[in-house]
Amino acid sequence: METSSKKRIVILSAIGILFTSLICLYGFRNVILRNIVNKRTARIEQTHGLRLHYQQLQMKGCNEIALQGLSAVPEQRDTLLKLQSVNVKLNFWKLLKGNIEVRNVRMDGLAINFIKRDTIANYDFLFLKRQQQAEPEPVIESNYASRIDRILNLIYGFLPENGQLINLDITERKDSNFVAVHIPSFVIEKNRFQSAIKIQEDALSQQRWQATGELNRKVHTLKATLFAPEKKKVSLPYITRRFGAEVTFDTLSYSMTKEKRADNQLFLNGKAKVNGLDVYHKALSPEVIHLDRGQLSYQMNVSNHAFELDSTTTVAFNKLQFHPYLRAEKEKGNWHFTAAVDKPWFPADNLFSSLPKGLFNNLEGMKTSGELAYHFLLDIDFAQLDSLKLESELKEKNFRIIEFGTTPLSKMSGEFIYTAYENGIPVRTFPIGPSWEHFTPLDSISPILRMSVMQSEDGAFFYHHGFLPDALREALIYDLQVKRFARGGSTITMQLVKNVFLNRNKNFARKLEEALIVWLIESQRLTSKERMYEVYLNIAEWGPLIYGIREASAFYFNKRPSQLSTQESIFLASIIPKPKHFRSSFTEDGQLKETMEGYYKLIAGRLAQKGLINEIEADSIRPDIQVTGDARNSLAGEKPESSSPTAEEQ
Fold first, then answer.
1. CA dist., res. 55 & res. 623, Å (int)
2. How far apart are the first and last CA of the chain?
């Protein structure tokens, strides 16, 4: 009996102590809360140079926190944040375990102001590096799945099931320019939200948006849709001032669901959809790019060291759909990227009728029949760039062009008017055919010159179908090694298309349009190889405003193209990559530099292999020419009297 009595006394004492402790904790909960918050804010103030202040902070009951009069002011900067009041109800049982899960929130009067005056901003502390610790922390291999899972759990934990945000204002201001976002009421009810949004940009531009969606942490789902009422377009603010771009759309929607599996794999599934998208930026296209419908249904797999966009992902725009595969993996500090697309046979017109308007001007309105299939592979291991793989092939079956679009792509087959541009400005216009007095047929050009240019620019021109994958691969490897665009790997067909169809526009989209036009011309034989090479030699720039081989022959040597010597032909071939800087090939006394000798030996050796000169002549070739045309004046520092001389005029 004594033993059981003692046990009873011990248990009752423990319960009493626990109960007393809980009463004490409850009674002093506000003191404890403010003590924790004050320590955290002091650390933030010291680290980031902020002054944080609140008027009142208290706990109501066991799971509700009320805060009033919060402000954040960076040192010697404009106020960054002000908050009148916020009440947050938390999940009590989650809180006991140390986890935060917001059940309900009511916020009033939140104002966030990002202000920059000249070079001083009240948010620049966000980008300042923290002081390094005396002893560097050990390098820990990144675990992307765990890191992203923690971030998403934190975000989902703060998403309330119910709540209301009243008078939310976010302002970005730089000197006299500003963007102000005002949300009068953001309502969340049973995980679903809706809100009206007012946008004011500078003094004139005003917009009204509507946002709806779902925030559901139980199924780890986030959905949101943004649109403008009254069938108006949403115009994204700020980016015109910051990036010189204009982006508008009818509706934009996004969804994401998270799934965590036992093998430390994180799966993110979702969908992004846009309707009526219009984009303008001069780096993309000189015209507004219009996309009626675009949709991305994705599955992203995240592991310890890699991100992978699964091949079940679907990209759709207008009538075209395809399934891209992307993988980025980091091992021992080096990234390994893989991208692939395999599109099996599909109606060819699905491609050409789906091209966004404004992005492929020469192809707009084109009608085709037959089928196409496409294969693409890019594999880049930055630990060993020489192993880079690049494969791209567009195949056709019974393909036929029924009707050209805005541009007749076969125009090079006959005489046509060519306009040369510099920086988007036309500088010369002339016909490519017999009606131009300087036009030179292919058979009137020295065979040695024809071969010298071909061996210098594109030795396989008459054998390939517009592209040289190996040359593109080598150019990409070199560009990645030097970390800039230094080589292009262009063929003569690609140069022709660029100059004849696309020379007014220098932007990213031009490369895509260039590739399609090259494929169409070569695969459909819209222009013969001989005629393409003839056009190339008659429009190539050989010096400042010197176009075509006839002008070049007269400008440098006062000769006809059929009269050029081997040395003169090799010299002219060397100019094409840098026609405006031909003087850099000469010394001050007008002689070719010794550095040209390697180039001469290379081209002479190839001429010998083709049987145009013998081995003895090739060995004797030296960079030794005499400039006798108007180019002499340029070498002497004078401007040529005429920009288009001919041999007959000398």
1. 84
2. 133
Asked if 564 and 553 touch (Cβ cutoff 8 Å), the reply is: yes
- CA atoms of 165 and 183, how far apart (whole Å): 8
Provide φ and ψ at 514, rounded to 5°: -60, -45
pLDDT of res. 24:
47
Is it the case that residue 569 has pLDDT exceeding 70?
yes
Six-digit token string for 451: 């071969």
60 close to 36: Cβ distance less than 8 angstroms = no
**Whole-number Å distance between alpha carbons of 641 and 650:** 12
Q: C-alpha angle 445/449/453, rounded to 5°?
A: 120
Q: Are the beta carbons of 92 and 62 closer than 8 angstroms?
A: yes
The mean of the pLDDT values for the chain is 85
For residue 469, what are its two tokens?
């994958």
Q: What is the DSSP string of 31-94?
A: HHHHHHHHHHHHHHHHHHTEEEE-SEEEEETTTEEEEEEEEEEETTS---EEEEEEEEEE-HHH
Alpha-carbon distance values, 145 to 185, 255, 272, 302, 640 (Å): 35, 19, 22, 5, 66
Which residues on neighbouring strands pair with residue 163, listed in sequence order?
105, 188
The answer on pLDDT for 127 being more than 90 is no
Residues 308/474/489/408 CA torsion (nearest 10 deg) = -40
Ramachandran angles phi, psi of 217, nearest 5°:
-80, -20
Helix (H) or strand (E) holding 612: none
Distance CA 78, CA 352 (A): 53
Pairing relation of β-strands 56-60 and 425-432? unpaired
pTM (2 d.p.): 0.79
What is the radius of gyration, based on Cα positions, of the chain? 35
Distance CA 143, CA 307 (A): 11
Side-chain half-sphere CA neighbours of 135 within 13 A: 1
Residue 272, SS3?
A: strand
Q: What is the dihedral of CA 36, 42, 48, 50, to 10 degrees?
A: 110
Average pLDDT over residues 86-93: 72
| Confidence band of 547 (pLDDT split at 50, 70, 90) | very high
For the record, the structure tokens of 594 come out as 């010794």
DSSP 8-state class, residue 442: G
User: Which range among 22-36, 143-157, 194-208, 364-378 has the greatest average pLDDT?
Assistant: 364-378
Please tell me the distance from the alpha carbon of residue 647 to that of residue 650, in angstroms, as a whole number.
6
What secondary structure, in 3-state letters, does 117-178 show?
A: ECCEECCHHHHCCCCCCCCCCCCCCCCHHHHHHHHHHHHHHHCCCEEEEEEEEEEEEECCEE
pLDDT value of residue 638:
46
Residue 208 has pLDDT above 70, yes or no: yes
Three-state DSSP string of 343-379: EEEEEHHHHHCCCCECCCHHHCCCEEEEEEEEEEEEE
Residue 539: how many other CB atoms lie within 10 Å: 22
Residue 292's pLDDT is what? 85
